[in-house]
């Protein structure tokens, strides 16, 4: 966690900044936001008396800790050690660990869905064209391949044209990539 997040978590441990009741109301809201919900007023009416700047800092710190704990799949002992370092009271630690354990699998699943997912090739079509003349009516007599690649993420195929030599070069590079992948999977 960053220094700012640790400072925010230390604010959580300070009972003068956020009470146990306010903290207990804040944790489920943080989980809800992580899982796609909304929290216009984190902690609701219980947190109305808390300084709003400190509340948002604490809320952000709690969300970051929930995300990092989910990402790293840390166990209760490690989590308790971190919360001890942030001066959490035993009741705040129990509340946090309890809510985290209830939502651990959902947070991890949600984190698994975040990120760049590359498209998958689902179909390849090709066509061979023989050009006798160009638009200037000059004789060219050349072969051109039209390759159409269909991805799972798009309705429109990616289409390109190439000569026999360019297609051979592409096939050669694809074979090299396959061999590299095989070598990497054997390691």
Automatic annotation (TrEMBL):
Where the record annotates domain COMM, the positions are 120-185
What the entry lists under InterPro entries is as follows:
COMM, COMMD3
- Classify the source by domain of life: Eukaryota
Protein's GO biological process:
sodium ion transport
Q: Which family does it belong to?
A: Belongs to the COMM domain-containing protein 3 family.
Q: Tell me what this protein is called.
A: COMM domain-containing protein 3
This chain's source organism reads Ciona intestinalis
């Amino acid at each position: 966690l960053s220094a700012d997040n640790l400072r925010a978590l230390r604010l959580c441990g300070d009972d003068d900044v956020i009470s146990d009741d306010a903290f207990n109301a804040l944790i489920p809201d943080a989980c809800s936001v992580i899982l796609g919900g909304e929290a216009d007023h984190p902690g609701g009416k219980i947190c109305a008396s808390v300084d709003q700047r400190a509340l948002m800092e604490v809320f952000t710190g709690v969300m970051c800790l929930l995300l990092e704990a989910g990402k790293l799949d840390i166990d209760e002992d490690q989590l308790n050690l971190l919360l001890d370092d942030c001066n959490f009271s035993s009741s705040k630690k129990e509340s946090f660990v309890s809510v985290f354990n209830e939502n651990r699998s959902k947070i991890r699943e949600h984190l698994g869905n975040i990120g760049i997912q590359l498209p998958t090739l689902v179909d390849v079509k090709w066509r061979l064209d023989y050009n006798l003349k160009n638009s200037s009516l000059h004789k060219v007599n050349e072969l051109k391949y039209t390759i159409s690649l269909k991805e799972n993420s798009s309705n429109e195929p990616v289409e390109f044209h190439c000569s026999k030599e360019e297609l051979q070069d592409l096939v050669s590079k694809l074979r090299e990539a396959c061999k590299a992948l095989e070598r990497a999977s054997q390691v």
